[in-house]
Design a protein that fits this description.
Oligomer: homodimer
Number of helices of chain A: 15
Structural class of chain A: mainly alpha
Number of domains of chain A: 1
Shape of chain A: globular
CATH architecture of chain A: Orthogonal Bundle
CATH superfamily of chain A: Farnesyl Diphosphate Synthase
Chain lengths: ~300, ~300
């Protein structure tokens, strides 16, 4: 896939994801809640997770409506986690995607509620159905068994054994030295699980065989970890203006990072190894049309913010 | 159903729910997260929502495993909302069920994460499946279509159009006078939606006809509102020791309540009207075995804490 072809592919998918977010994140939620939710998720972000969902779905010629819902759902989970993570009791950050964080703009209570409502909305978007009070909800637009599968994947990746668990390890690790294995476990949970699940949710929209599924799980694990290694590198090498968030935050907070544990050069080498592992997994998948996934692995490692 | 029969029924169901919570709320979640989650949901609470799920399921001779999972899931959502609601940026409460609140015991960051992880766990419990990384998750124990239905119900009741939306209205209403219609809307969202959904999740585990479904939705709406009216009455008539939480909190905070809007006597009459409406809905359902639901409606109105 040429750089130009990928750029066109990405531009189309990003526009589609923005339209879907615009449609499914409610403007009319009561008492300012909708405004805070939309502020937290619209008009910003790289949308890496939605792109992974769509690329994996396309590699398996899967169901488009289901994948679009999965893309929105995983982005809602990611965005809610940023809102909660930025709050004073967590990272206490005032800048995100170059704008004031949600609690700075709307207050802490509304920020917490917006995050809570966004997590619920993710599971709502995954389970489209008819009028609930009129009759037991019947699946609409997405096959019910696929709805259940997507919920199972997303719930596990965001909860105690995934993202939230990783954040708890992170909390406990601040100011402590970690060995590389513990650091890797923390990041596999905190960041990796949701990135891997993005790939698997997209794949679930098709009819993956066991070989394809396992290879895509390996691909997702590799880019999930690569993303965090690169994040740690960028935290010390890029200014805040480029990152759109406060640079040097993790090293200032004395949090263990790949750079603090491995050193900058070894962290860079590790990112390249993980990129190679992602490409190897795609080759092992036997998928004929995994070009967008391959370029996404490169982008994860080459990104500058 | 005699009082003795109901007590025996309830004792059995409560024991079953506690065993299920004990089994499904992880002890081994990392870095103290599991401990905070278990502290927030085990060993306390009236378990009204789980009882409603199980009673509705039994009235329709529904699937037991599904109903037990629904009972645990709805209690997890309820418990997470209490944890977040008690935090300093919301109600800033230090006492819940007669014990220090989660943020007092574990700190604000861990309390927020525990709540977040409990919401995810609710949807995980609703979607039992095999090993995710080995193959696309297949439903286990609960039919996949029913899994999707239960998620659809729970997500909508807890999100922006339900519980979280009601909390946002509550936030915005503090210190303002509300008319009864707005107060009712707030409580239908904040408390009523999850209680109503408990009934409907239980019903969905059976094979309800449209008449039964709509009647149970009416029953759930009536007891949902009755619960809040009684809550507002108890807030001004009972001491903290009986409530297991800080009494007089809402009136002190100058929050609009049924007592402040209607007066104490009219609020008590309204609770009785809602009890009658709940019984009328059960009669209209045509269900032969709705005795436990009938007693639960009485208990909601007659409770003292």
């Amino acid at each position: 896939m040429s750089a130009r072809d990928f750029d066109a592919w990405m531009r189309d998918r990003l526009a589609e994801v923005e339209r879907a977010l615009e449609r499914w994140v409610p403007a009319d939620a009561p008492a300012g809640l909708g405004e805070a939710m939309r502020y937290g998720v619209l008009d910003g972000g790289k949308r890496l997770r939605p792109l992974l969902v769509l690329a994996a779905c396309e590699a398996l010629a899967g169901a488009r409506e289901a994948a679009l819902r999965a893309a929105v759902a995983v982005e809602l989970i990611h965005a809610y986690s940023l809102i909660h993570d930025d709050m004073p009791c967590m990272d206490n950050d005032v800048l995100r995607r170059g704008k004031p964080t949600v609690h700075v703009k709307y207050g802490e209570a509304q920020a917490m509620l917006a995050g809570d409502a966004m997590q619920a909305l993710a599971f709502e978007v995954l389970t489209p159905c008819g009028d609930l009070l009129d009759a037991p909800p019947e699946a609409v637009g997405v096959d019910a068994a696929l709805q259940a599968r997507l919920v199972a994947l997303l719930a596990r990746a965001s909860g105690h054994a995934g993202m939230a668990g990783g954040q708890a390890i992170d909390l406990a690790a601040t100011g402590r030295a970690l060995d590389e294995a513990t650091l890797r476990h923390m990041h596999r949970c905190k960041t990796g699980a949701l990135l891997q699940t993005s790939v698997l949710m997209g794949a679930a929209c098709g009819h993956p065989g066991a070989r394809e599924w396992r290879a895509l799980a390996d691909y997702g694990a590799a880019i999930g970890l690569a993303f965090q290694v690169v994040d740690d590198i960028l935290d010390v090498t890029q200014p805040s203006a480029t990152l759109g968030k406060t640079a040097g935050k993790d090293s200032d907070a004395n949090k263990p990072t790949y750079v603090s544990v491995l050193g900058l050069d070894a962290a860079r080498r590790h990112a390249q190894e993980l990129r190679a592992a992602a490409h190897a997994a795609l080759a092992a998948s036997g998928l004929a049309d995994a070009a967008a996934l391959a370029v996404l692995a490169d982008k994860v490692v080459e990104r500058e913010n």
